[in-house]
Amino acid sequence: MITVALPKGSLLKESIRLFQSAGLDFSGFLDSSHRQLQLTDSDSQARGLLVRAQDVPVYVEYGQAQIGIVGYDVLREKQPQVAHLADLGFGGCHLSVAVAANSGYQSAVDLPPHCRVASKFVNSARQYFQSLDLPVEIVPLSGSVELGPITGMSEAIVDLVSTGRTLKENNLIELEMLYHSTARLIAHPLSYRVDDRLSEVIDQLRTASQSAVTA
Fold it and tell me: What domains appear along the chain, each with residue ranges and CATH number?
């Protein structure tokens, strides 16, 4: 039986729709009347695991799931040992440097050396500022990073931006975009090469995602 790691949150609905196109139905995860974290699809061909997005590549890397769907931002930050199979095209957002609108900064290089930058994406933020040869202190936060500049704890933040509404409502502006992120199909680096049924499902998922992008 194929085991699939599905991400909680914004990517879940589209992920389930994609798997339905490959004949695997995990729509039970969308039923708000229960909190089931594991279910078998209606034809008993596959088992779905509902996990935090950041944990999807962990389950895949350690072989508890053969395939999974996760944002590129998680892969870029975590650098897991998994096979990257396809850009699925949905869940688009980007990682950006942002500051208070009244800060006067026009670009990231305007930030003062050794200033504080708050972020959930510690590795990505550190790598970016190292590429600028700008020493900063990365302050790790797990949520509400927008409060960094508002409270004065940090000069800037590095965070995901989708519509930009949250930044605007908190009087923040983007300075630079680090990279664009979309949902990605990943697999355990060995199992997808030797399991014929899994290879068939992967091909169907690739075809369905390409059709959706070109539609």
Answer: 2-90+182-214 (3.40.190.10), 93-179 (3.40.190.10)
pTM above 0.85, yes or no: yes
Intervals of the chain under pLDDT 50: none
Q: Return the closest-CA partner of residue 47 out of 71, 18, 67.
A: 67
Residue 195: the pLDDT is 72
Which pLDDT score is estimated for 198?
83
Helices (H), the chain: 12-21, 56-61, 72-78, 122-131, 147-151, 165-169, 191-194, 196-214
Give the pairing of strands 156-161 and 116-119: parallel
Q: Which amino acid is at 6?
A: L
How far is residue 41's CA from residue 46's CA, in Å, rounded to a whole number? 6
The amino acid sitting at 72 is Y
Length, in residues, of the chain: 215
- Interacting residues of 44 by C-beta distance below 8 A, sequence separation 6+: 1
Q: How far apart are CA 156 and CA 82, in angstroms?
A: 32
Nearest-angstrom CA–CA distance, 124 and 199: 32
Q: What local confidence, expressed as pLDDT, does residue 213 receive?
A: 54
Asked if residue 131 lies in contact with residue 63, where contact means CB atoms within 8 angstroms, the answer is no
Q: What pLDDT sits at residue 164? A: 92
